[in-house]
Structures are given as C-alpha cells and as structure tokens.
Amino acid sequence: MASAKKSSGAARQARIAEMRRAEQARERRNRILVIAASVVVVAGLVAGGVFVVRSQSDDTSAVDAKTSGHFTTGKDGVKTWQGKLGRTHVAKTVTYPVEPPVGGDHNQVWMNCNGDVYDKALNNMNAVHSLEHGAVWVTYNSKAAKADVEALAAKVKKTPYTLMSPDDKQPDPIMLTAWAHQRTVKSASDPDVDAFFAKFVQGEQTPEPGAACTNGLSQ
C-alpha cells in the first residue's frame, strides 16, 4: 500500500515537473512573439496614431455567458455541469449562472494561473479563461479559517495550472473549480483537495490542454 502511494506521488511530481518544463518553453516562445508584436504595434502607433485599448473591458453592459444546463453531483461530491458552456471571447461583462463560474463565454485574456495566489477578488471573465486552459481555481470567502487559506495558498504556489483568490459571493467557505466541475471542501487538509487537484489540473475536462497559464493578467 505504501509502495503504491509512493508510486502515485512520484508520478504526480513527474507530471508537475513536466508541466513546468512545458510552461517554461512556452514562456520562451511567448517572449519572442511579444517582442515581434511590440514592434508591429509601435509601428502602427507611429504611422496611424492608433489608440491601444486594454483587453480587459470596462463596458458595464452585460451579456449572458451562453450557458444552459444544471449540476449533477457524483458520489465523490464533485458537481458536474450538464449542458452547454459557451467558449466565445467577448469584450462585455458576462453574467454567469453560478458563483464561482465553471465555464462559459469569457474575456480573451486569462488570469495568470501558474500557481498564482491573489489577495483580491478576480474578474470572473478572466478566471474562466484560465479554467479553459486547464487550471483549478481555489476560492474562499470570509468564513474560511485563516489557517486553511494559508495552507491552500502554499499548495497552489507549488502547483502549476492553479490559481487562488477570495470570493465573498460564493455560498461556501472553500470551493474548488475546474472547467465544468466544482466542489466544496471542509478544510485545507480535506483529502478531497488532493483528489480534485489530481483529477482536474490539466485534466481530461480541459478544453485547451497545454495552453499557457502565464503572460496573462496578474491583477
């Protein structure tokens, strides 16, 4: 039994190490692309006086996330969205049927999710894009114990394709969200935390496996 656990742990560590190497490779490629794009943008600004507008829209008009369906709860306590989840990039504010959202139309820019821990609530439209890339999003409200928040933050910081933020609009103290999946956990030491991470960090539910979790927004 102990040997099996060690083998499982070693496999997970190898998987995380491989994701880190892949992410570093993507970062190198992205830096080259950013430099090239910057040259084009500067040339455009000089030639035509183009105004650069931040992709994070301040438009207050809301659009529906193009989601339809409902949750079903499995024996393991994980809720799975049964129905449609839009994946269109939109500039306007999106309203979602659940909090935190588990998918739907979203902003074209994702939140950095390479083990990023935020101390302020996130814009849902950017966080949903992170879910599309295969990230697990850890959220908590004011009822969560400080010790649990600190322990979860430490876990997130060492796990690629995860992010964490407060969310006082959510119904439970601690919640874990992946694309089309969500669950509540009792504490940071709840074994369901590790189980959720193992299954959904870059899991089979990921619409865009291998997509970057860096070079997005960092709040």
UniProtKB/TrEMBL annotation:
One short Pfam name that applies is DUF3105
**Which of UniProt's keywords are assigned here?**
Membrane, Transmembrane, Transmembrane helix
Residues passing through the membrane, by range? 32-53
Give a yes or no for keyword Transmembrane in this entry. Answer: yes
Q: Which InterPro entries match?
A: DUF3105 (IPR021454)
Identify this protein by name: DUF3105 domain-containing protein
